[in-house]
Amino acid sequence: MFRDLKLLTGNSNPALAKEIAQYIGQELCRTTVTTFSDGEIRVRVEENVRGGDVFIIQSCCHPVNTSIMELLLLIDAVKRSSASRITAVIPYYGYGRQDRKDQPRVPISAKLIADLLTVAGAGRILTMDLHAGPIQGFFNIPVDHLYAMPVLLDYMKKQKTSDIVVVSPDAGGVERARAFAKRLNSSLAIIDKRRESPNEAEIMNIIGEVENRHALLFDDMIDTAGTIVKTAQTCVDNGALSVWAGCTHAVLSGPALERLESSCLSEVVVTNTIPLNGKEQQCKKIKSLSVAPLLGEAILRIHREESVTSLFV
Asked: Is the dihedral angle over the CA atoms 57, 117, 221, 34 positive or is it negative?
């Protein structure tokens, strides 16, 4: 077993980091993350981490590039301070949507971020609901991939709603939606969607039955909310009694909040892998659930060299 467990965080999601620290039962290490006058990021770890098992908690959320740079500098700082092992805890993995070369002359950004994290000194990655599972293979270091499904499932079961159909907003999310439907003992429907350009989607058809049922749209993230709102309206047009949406990562960029508020969605259930801003917190349709206990338990098990997979069995 490694020596002392150390928890650090940057500025991307300090509230989640504090919740994780409370679950584990220890304080976050004191760190200074500021900027020079020209915008360069300055990082300093204020406590001794020599020989420690260090976990750096940092979501790659808005401002994405700043959050990633903070994470890389924190990793480098503790590596140069002789930490025994460094685990990057990334609740939301940025640039995950660019995971393949689907057009000429485009980067595979998810792979580049993986390389940067590894070169910086991360010895292990702990993340949640990657946009595409194969991103794990971009790393040559161990990756523990968590799922927010237990947290979302527990909430949905407490609603005690019958006649549920789980709807995948696109073909890429079928596996995720099928697993969700299986645990809810519900049926499955799939949206046949064509994406003409980034953040632009056109609903084509529904494969499955949603009439006289309560539709639950489940995806890994909601960005501009265009897809989820159009999918919800399509479900209603096809006879759904109500439509709920659930996702792990509430990116909610651009017109997302306005679209959700004016949509036919009854409720949008998200997790706190990405912090909600003031307006998003005030939106009555958005319900945020905490994944801190799940991440905290995973950190403890990694530190003790115990199974993480058993969390989902």
From this structure: positive
What is the token pair recorded at 184? 């809810």
Query: Which CA distances in Å does 188 have to 16, 22, 110, 222, 244?
Result: 32, 38, 30, 20, 14
SS (H, E, C) 122-133: CCEEEEECCCCH
Closest CA to 310 of 150, 133, 117, 125: 150
Marked catalytic residue, from 193, 230, 285, 287: 193
Is 18 among the residues known to form the active site? Answer: no
In the block, residue with structure tokens 């989820």: 228
Global pTM reads 0.92
For the segment 225-266, what is each residue's pLDDT rounded down to a tens digit?
Answer: 988 998 999 999 999 999 999 999 999 999 999 999 999 999
CB 184 within 8 Å of CB 224: no
- Tell me which residue has tokens 């770890």: 45
Cα dihedral 272, 277, 281, 283, rounded to 10, equals -120
Residue 305 zone, left/alpha/beta (φ > 0; ψ -120 to 50; rest): left
Provide the 10 A C-beta neighbour count for residue 190.
19
